Amino acid sequence: MLKPEYPIYVANEARLPNKDLVVTDKFTGKPATRTALVDVATIDEAIGKAVEAAEPMARLKSYRRREVLEHCVARFRERFDELAESLCIEAGKPIKDSRGEVTRLIETFRIAAGEAERILGEVMPLDNAERAANYMGMWKRVPIGPCSFISPFNFPLNLAAHKVAPALAVGCPFVLKPASLTPVGALIIGETLAETDLPKGAFSVLPCRRDGAALFTEDPRLKLLSFTGSPAVGWDLKAKAGKKKVVLELGGNAACIVEDWDLDDAVARIVFGAFYQSGQSCISVQRVLVNEKIYKPFRDKLVEATLKLKSGDPHKEETFIGPMITDGEASRLGGWIEEAIGRGAIALCGGTRKGAMLEATILEDAPRDAKVVTEEAFGPVLVLSKYSDYDAALAEVNDTVFGLQCGVFTRDLYKAMKAWDTIEVGGVVVGDVPSWRVDHMPYGGVKDSGLGREGIRFAIEDMTEIRLLVVRTP
């Protein structure tokens, strides 16, 4: 169970100035715990302390940064069950998925501990012309400075970790705004960091309402903003961010092409990719394009497998579909499903809603301009269609404002390479769903899906600047 209350963290120190933020159990809708909502003055204070911490953080030797991250790994392992239970309650995430996210939290910090010792530079010969004959150069990476992080509700632990861990690896102080719907995981990360001897001001974890968070984006003392969330919010924040570097991990309506593959394996992976944690993932499978030669058997197997999914209490081991994050989100997506059906789509299964619980839904023949096709569904719905021409399928995958990841089920090497060359996304996954991710790969999107890449090594590149040294020998 959750503790009755959780403190926030301001410049490494626990505080509980109020108990205004009520965190609910997303399955029962009942209050589960409380924490504080911070005001603008507290955010301003935390940013000021982060600025003061920039120099001592930059001076931290790599072994000390590694030790902080290793401490987190050890403590997260010790608190594994507590962390999983907190996710199950505050996010409504089925307990098996919750355990999976805690495992990834640990992996992300473990990877960052190794990368803390591999922030490399390069000796660079400059004598490429007579005028530079007596010059040599070298460059290194230095911390960019105080960072602002805004993390979403759907992966409260691991998506916060993908910002916090690389910042610690490189020596950047930060202020973190977790989602107000799911702040507990980030606060536990803060509690763990408070056990270390990081310089004062190295970190702050500050739950607040969106309308009170302008300083996270606009304050010029912050040198980088990393935001994960909806495209509309993300691009608006970028427009307001001023001169600071901006990294955006935004939404998608990820597609899968099923060209030629073992049908049972493809169905199993697509059912997982579409409906795990109720489809509330930016790389959840939303559009599935199937070669017409295998369409009917694939469709029948897909529906059969989806109907077997267990919905209900996320604490139960057999539950696969839990609640969406709010009744309002379930109602919004339920309306999109009704709109598509009203325009001719066929509901092969699902489509009904009770509160925040929305059934796993498969739609066939949805109009190409229906919201459930063109927008990010962010819930348990999959749109199924057939194709006869592979090139046309690639074009249909690209017919979207999004470009995060896609999956291609094919054994044909040339078709796999053509997908990699053609599909406008951050990543192409062959033989699996776009929902697949490990925590050291370059992860991110193009078009409306974002800007920059996560994955520890690649986040470190954004959180550092190159500093050149030139030496002239007279």
Write the CATH fold name of the largest domain: Aldehyde Dehydrogenase, Chain A, domain 1
Which sequence of strands runs across the widest sheet? 14-17-18-13-12-19-20
Domain module count: 2
The span between the termini is 70 Å
Radius of gyration: 23 Å
Number of strands: 22
Poorly predicted residue ranges? none
Q: How is the biggest beta sheet arranged?
A: 7 strands, mixed
Shape: globular
Strand content: 15-25%
CATH homologous superfamily identity of the largest domain: Aldehyde Dehydrogenase, Chain A, domain 1
Describe, in plain words, how this protein is organized in 3D:
This protein has 474 residues and is α/β, with parallel strands linked by helices. It folds into two domains: 8-250 and 449-470, Aldehyde Dehydrogenase, Chain A, domain 1; 255-438, 3-Layer(aba) Sandwich (Aldehyde Dehydrogenase, Chain A, domain 2). It is 38% helix and 20% strand. It contains 15 helices and 22 strands. The protein has helices at residues 40-59, 62-78, 80-90, 95-115, 158-170, 184-193, 214-218, 231-240, 263-275, 295-307, 327-342, 371-374, 390-398, 413-422, 456-462; strands at residues 8-10, 13-15, 21-24, 31-35, 122-125, 135-143, 147-150, 174-177, 203-205, 224-228, 245-249, 255-258, 287-291, 346-349, 353-354, 357-358, 361-364, 381-387, 405-409, 427-430, 450-451, 464-472. The strands form six sheets. The protein has a seven-stranded mixed beta sheet, sandwiched between helices. A hairpin with a 2-residue loop joins strand 1 and strand 2 (13-15).
